[in-house]
Amino acid sequence: MATPDDIAEAKRIANARKMAQTAVATTPVVAPVVTTPTVDPYYVRDPKTGLSPAQVEANAAKADALKNLEATAKAAEASGQEVKIIRPYDGPAQIIPKPTPPPADANYRYDYEWVGASVSTERNPGLGKWKLVQYPNAGPADWMFDSNGMLFHKGKAFTGTYQGVNYVDGKGPGYKESGSGSKPTTDQATLDLIKSLQDQLAALGAGNQQAAINKAAEEAAAKKEKAENAIAVLTDRFSRYGLTSLVPKIRELAIAGASESTITLQLQETEEYKTRFKANEDRIKKGLRVLEPSDYLNIEDDYRQILRAYGLRQFDTDAYVQQFISNDISTTELSNRVVTAVQRVQNADPAILATLRGYYGISDNDLVAYVLDPNQQFQKIERQVAAAEIGAAAGLQGLTAGVTVAEQLAAQGVTKAQAQKGYATIADILPTAEKLSDIYKGTLDEYRQSEAEQEIFNTLASAQRKRRALAEREIATFAGGSGLSKTALDQTARGSF
User: Which residues of 71-106 are buried (b: 16+ CB within 10 A; e: fewer)?
Assistant: First the structure.
């Protein structure tokens, strides 16, 4: 139902239009006086918009202020405080809180209703206010008084007696006229205009509400799509890492709105992730660079392929692979270690294994592990294996090569084959040389195994002279009757290595 203020406003608009039409019809045409005053461009109106820069700026400031005021009002209403925003034409917008009504008495309950306009103009500067109204506190809820004290029943002005008071067309002892707007209008054109305006406002509100709903739906759909994409990408990635246990965490963070990069960073702080890429923590402590997950996985695969290619599956474990990564073992070095472990240790002559155990105190079960241990320098391991091969070559000829001599020969680059050939030569000449050394002890320098090793492997001239001196003395002493030919001892070692 149209209020008295709505009716007054509609009549004011109709009268203004009529006055404007009359003024146009009766105003004589006067030739304008053309002047060119000096005007600041800041105050010159744009012909398209009808606004000057100053007006645009002022309107923008006013709109911002109103926006902030509306946000404040919304916050107040959310906390249970009803307010009204008024916008006087000659001042800033304001918030007018609703006063607290007095308590109900035996006959009525009280409340405040806003009466009048909330926006004023130069022609109509008056603004509304909160007005105390009373409602019967007994009887059906469809009984009510309007702001002028007029009683309505089910939306219609009441005629009759209510609670001992007589009313005619809603008017009783408490009815007060409030100017021209106090009586309902019966003019159909005015009523149609008011209804049209009300319908337009309702449509505008519904349109804004639908637009807000559509925008919220679009934002929700975009957020859902983003979350689903992040879940798909990260689930695939962390599954390849062997971290499927983190998939629920991925889903939880993505649904909460976290970005892909944020989720990745948070997952890297989980114990599961740190355990999976544990070698990176050791690399940090050793001053090595941290491997990206893709690089980490690739080098893991390379290590495992090398171990499996040589049948060393007992070492294809996370613990061993982590040790290789922690110590920055290259795939080339691992290949060399594996070849040494398999070909020169695991598949070696038992004599070599026995010598390796004897030299370095390594048990049978630990031999291959010892070679693969990334904490052991590979150059040292190679030298020790080579020394064991040299020691075994000496033992094959019934000789004993100490670990010091074997390591010296290994450091010189003596190979297994060279050691076998060399010790075969030493075994051939040493019995006679030692026999002569015993005979001429004290008169000539002795020629023992160490001198033979120096002559054969190092081509030491002094050792060769000792052997020849013994041979020549034997020949001179027993020429023709010793059973030793003139060149026997000399030729045995000559050119043999």
Answer: eebeeeeeeeeebbebbeeeeebeebeeeeeeeeee
Give SS3 for 305: helix
What band does 497 get if pLDDT is binned at 50, 70 and 90? very low
Q: Distance (Å, rounded) from C-alpha 70 to C-alpha 57?
A: 20
Q: Would you say the pTM of this structure is higher than 0.90?
A: no
3-state SS, residue 85: strand
Distance of CA 411 to the CA centre of its chain: 52
pLDDT in tens, 124-134: 667 788 888 77
* pLDDT value at 223 more than 80: yes
How far is it, in rounded angstroms, from Cα 295 to Cα 277? Answer: 11
pLDDT digits (tens, 9 = 90+) for 146-197: 767 788 887 788 888 887 788 888 888 767 665 444 445 556 666 676 667 6
CA atoms within 13 A on the CB side of 364: 5
Q: Between 248 and 8, whose confidence is greater? A: 248
3-class SS at 236?
A: helix
Q: At what angle do helices 416-439 and 461-477 cross, to 10 degrees?
A: 40
d(CA 110, CA 271): 64
DSSP 367-427: HHHHHH-TTS-HHHHHHHHHHHHHHHHHHHTT----HHHHHHHHHTT--HHHHHHHHHHHH
Within 10 Å of residue 49's Cβ, how many Cβ atoms? 9
What is the C-alpha to C-alpha distance for residues 443 and 6, in angstroms, rounded to an integer?
145
The count of C-alpha atoms lying within 13 angstroms of the C-alpha of 115, restricted to the half-sphere facing its C-beta, is: 15
Q: Is-contact 297 322, C-beta < 8 A?
A: no
Structure-block tokens of residue 237:
């990635």
